[in-house]
Amino acid sequence: MSKKITPPPATPNPANTWWPLAAGLLVLAFALLEIYGPALNGPFLFDDRYLPFLIPGFADNALRYWVVGVRPILMVTYWANTRMFGLDPYWFHFVNLLLHAAAGVCVWFIAKKLTQHKVLSAFCALVFLLHPLQTESVSYIASRSEVAAGLFFLAAWAVFLYRKEQAIGIGETLLVMALYGMAVLTKEHTVVLVAVLLLTDYFFNPGFTLEGIKKNWKLYGGLILAGIAPVLFLLRTLKNADSAGFNMKDLTATDYLLTQVRALWVYVRLYLLPIQQNLDYDMPISRSLFDYGAGLSLLSWLVLVAIAWVKRKQWPLASFGFFLFLILLAPTSSFLPIRDVLVERRMYMAVFALSLVAVELLRRWKTTPTTLVALTAVVSLALMAVTYQRNAVWSSALALWSDSASKSPNKARPHFQLAYAHYEKGQCLEATHAYARAAELQKPDDHLYVDWALALDCAGQPALALSRLEDANRLKPSAHNYALMGMIRGKTQQYDEGLAALAEAEKLDGNFSMLHAYRGNILFARGELDAAIASFQRALSIEPQLAAAAQGLRNVQNAKAKAQAQSDANRR
Predict the structure, then answer these.
(1) Cα separation of 511 and 538, whole Å?
(2) Phi then psi dihedrals of residue 338, to 5 deg
(3) Secondary structure (DSSP) of 183-227
(4) 124, 314, 418, 539: which could join 355 in a potential S-S bond, CB 3.0 to 4.6 Å?
(5) How far is it, in rounded angstroms, from Cα 328 to Cα 347?
(6) Confidence at residue 1, expressed as pLDDT on a 0 to 100 scale
């Protein structure tokens, strides 16, 4: 009888191991492009328009002129954008999304190491990539600082986690230090990386001891020394800032802390239930423990800190994620006052921290891997739907500020920005109503009055426009204000009054080019062609690219040529 031969076990075909991952990544890339599609095709919005590369002529500067500010690595990314794709906002949005996708890959690697679970690490990465809370960071070009800094931060953390030995090697140390430097030079809040690595060593190397921290003391010493300079620079910068720092008399460190213990709960709620998102939240300031439940919020966080510490060994991922959440938000949501007390982009990396808390619960759920995969798929699809809707809001200034004004009806800034969005669309009457509402909600400054006047003029209400310009001049007289008064009076054929207003503008600033262009228009309307030509030429001598003056000059020269031709014809 022949002996039965048992065939050797089949070896997995490498071709069958990589293609599901590749297919999944392609599907995810397609999903990201789809859900961020409305914003990808949107324009520059809000503070995007004040980015330096949009200053006429700045984009043509050599790289050394881009990196002289406080965030040089961020500016390098903008410089590369302009060199490769010009000033098309689509490509600025696309690069933001590309950086976000790379950050998501880093989250997957980190979660894989922390959870030791394929499905749960995928859950963390997908929630990070698809959560609607990420929309402001990704779809707002000015918030590239969050995404790029987050990428470098997460990459440094991943290198730290995947080191070969318990004590990090010299090569790995240098790489972590380099990525840390790039993160800090992109946005300063990433100085907390040292705290995150300390927390990681304590929890997982080998676990709830100081052994790992002691072995990696050289890395921590280097990170702390490297972080001193940017922290000192930031504090010096904040001395003269009017939107952040300890010099804001109407927002003290205590006020801010009491407000932030409430804001933290809003962030948690937005993670769990991302509805009623808003670019410009109207959150009242807590001046004492008794304002808006600040004392109760503070007590709740202190209790949770105590519970997380006591239960750190029984619930390691939840405890770690909780402390990570607080560390990541500490630079912006603790005691350093910032004018905007609640901002969604601050949650960019903290989304991952809360996902680790959720993963702790999921891994204790006695269910099958198939059920976990199905749950991950359902959560991902739900997040994709909400994120797509949120990106539709970010597709235009009018949509964005209409949304914000409806959700913050008693805050002036959304109405002011909504007014300007209406004005840009030529919806001048709607703009006047929005400016009036903004003026009701907050004492108007000269800028509001001037913009309001322009909308009123556009809406065919010159008398009211002049009244708003007079209001602006009472607050802060300027050549711009008087020049606009001259322009409006000229359009209503009040030529003498218009020229008088322009004379006042010239007294304040004779080099304000538009006043000479407006004067040229009035002189042209009065038939004083030679004087009009001189005014337009004066405007162009100050600002050679001034389109209004160039067009006005052509109009006068054409009119003069026609008049000369007619005169010659009459003589014949």
Answers:
(1) 9
(2) -130, 135
(3) HHTT-GGGGGHHHHHHHHHHHHSSSSSSHHHHHTHHHHHHHHHHH
(4) 124
(5) 8
(6) 45
Going by pLDDT thresholds of 50, 70 and 90, the confidence category of residue 4 is low
Percent of the chain with pLDDT over 90: 87
Closest of 395, 411, 463 to residue 432, by C-alpha = 463
Distance between CA atoms of 411 and 536, rounded to whole angstroms? Answer: 42
**CA 252, CA 68: separation in Å to the nearest integer?**
31
Domain boundaries along the sequence of the chain? 27-393, 397-567
Pair 172, 195: CB distance under 8 Å: no
pLDDT of 530 over the 50 cut: yes
Per-residue model confidence as pLDDT tens digits over 107-133: 999 999 999 999 999 999 999 999 999
For the chain, what's the residue count? 572
pLDDT digits over 325-370, tens only? 999 999 999 999 999 999 999 999 999 999 999 999 999 998 999 9
How far CA 18 is from CA of 23, 66, 122, in Å, comes to: 9, 42, 16
The encoded tokens of residue 181 equal 């430097």
Residues 6+ apart with CB under 8 A from 154: 103, 106, 107, 110, 349
As beta bridge partners, residue 338 has 244
Structure-block tokens of residue 63: 């790289």
Of residues 475, 533, 526, 517, the one with CA closest to residue 497: 526
Measured at the CA of 361, the angle between CA 106 and CA 261, to 5 degrees, comes to: 75
Q: What is the pLDDT of residue 2?
A: 45
Neighbours of 421 (CB within 10 A): 23
> What is the rounded CA–CA span in Å between residue 418 and residue 289?
35
Q: How remote is the C-alpha of 369 from its chain's centroid?
A: 38
CA distances from 197 to 122, 190, 191 (A): 22, 12, 11
Place of tokens 């409806």: 406
Contact 434, 424 (CB under 8 A): no
Distance CA 522, CA 497 (A): 11
Q: DSSP state, 50?
A: G
Which CA distances in Å does 313 have to 95, 204, 407? 41, 11, 42
Contact 551, 532 (CB under 8 A): no
Letter string b/e over residues 212-251, b meaning 16 or more CB atoms within 10 A of that residue's CB: bbeebeebbebbeebbeebeeebeeebeeeeebbeebeeb
Class of domain 397-567: mainly alpha
pLDDT per residue as tens digits for the range 480-509:
999 999 999 999 999 999 999 999 999 999
Q: What is the mean pLDDT of residues 81-101?
A: 97
Copy the structure tokens of residue 420.
């300007």
Q: Which residues contact 64 (CB under 8 A, 6 or more apart)?
A: none
What is the Cα gyration radius of the chain? 30
